[in-house]
Amino acid sequence: MEEKEVIKGLRDHNPAALREILKLYKDQVLLTIAGRYHNFTKAEIEDIITDTFKDVWLTKPEFKSLINVRRYLYRTALNKSNTLVRHQQFLARRDKELAYMYDNQQETLDVKRRREYAINYVISHFPKLPARSRQVLNLMIEEKLSDEEIADRLKISINSVHQARKRGIQKLKEMLGNSMPDDPNALTYLLIFLIQLNSTGLKSDMYPLLF
C-alpha cells in the first residue's frame, strides 16, 4: 500500500492498513523493547506489542505520515514497558515486605485464627465479583496457578489477567470497606491478604486449611 493509502486506511478503520503497519513496524518495535528490557519474558513483550498496535486501531489518532505512525508506536510501546517495570518493582518491594513480616512473626493460635478468618472473609465475597475477576482469583488461590498458567487456561493475554485481578481487588475493597472494626488484628490480615492478592503468586502459608 502507498503511504497515503495507509494513513487514510487507519483513519477509516481499514484492516488492510493495520496489517500494513504491522508488517512495517512490528519487528522493529519488538526488537527495540527486547533490547532495552532484558528481564521481560517473551509473553510480556508480545502483550506490549499487541496492546500498542491495538491502541492505534482503537483510538485512531490522526497521523499525517508513516513517520508519525512509527513515532507513536515506539512512544506507546516504551510507555507501556515503563509501566510494567514500575509494576514489577512495586511487586518485588511488596513481596519482600510481606516475606519479612511473616518470617519474623511468632504466630499464636489466636493470630492464626484471625488470619484464617480474614482470608475466608475475603474469599466469601468472590461470588459477587465480575466473572473474569472471579475466575482469575480462584485459579490463583485454589489451583495456585501463575499469571502465565492462568492466561493459558483462560485463553487470554497476561495483561488481561493483570487487569482482571486489579478490577477484582478494587471491587473487593469497595465491598469490604472498613470490615471487622471490632477486631483490628483480623482487619490487618485482611488488608495484607488483599495486597498479596495483587502480587504475582500467593505464598502457600497465606491460606492454610482453607480448601
TrEMBL record:
<dbReference type="InterPro" id="IPR014284">
    <property type="entry name" value="RNA_pol_sigma-70_dom"/>
</dbReference>
<comment type="similarity">
    <text>Belongs to the sigma-70 factor family. ECF subfamily.</text>
</comment>
<protein>
    <recommendedName>
        <fullName>RNA polymerase sigma-70 region 4 domain-containing protein</fullName>
    </recommendedName>
</protein>
<dbReference type="InterPro" id="IPR013324">
    <property type="entry name" value="RNA_pol_sigma_r3/r4-like"/>
</dbReference>
<dbReference type="InterPro" id="IPR013325">
    <property type="entry name" value="RNA_pol_sigma_r2"/>
</dbReference>
<dbReference type="InterPro" id="IPR039425">
    <property type="entry name" value="RNA_pol_sigma-70-like"/>
</dbReference>
<dbReference type="GO" id="GO:0016987">
    <property type="term" value="F:sigma factor activity"/>
</dbReference>
<keyword id="KW-0804">Transcription</keyword>
<keyword id="KW-0731">Sigma factor</keyword>
<dbReference type="GO" id="GO:0006352">
    <property type="term" value="P:DNA-templated transcription initiation"/>
</dbReference>
<dbReference type="InterPro" id="IPR036388">
    <property type="entry name" value="WH-like_DNA-bd_sf"/>
</dbReference>
<feature type="domain" description="RNA polymerase sigma-70 region 4">
    <location>
        <begin position="128"/>
        <end position="174"/>
    </location>
</feature>
<dbReference type="InterPro" id="IPR007630">
    <property type="entry name" value="RNA_pol_sigma70_r4"/>
</dbReference>
<dbReference type="Pfam" id="PF04545">
    <property type="entry name" value="Sigma70_r4"/>
</dbReference>
<keyword id="KW-0805">Transcription regulation</keyword>
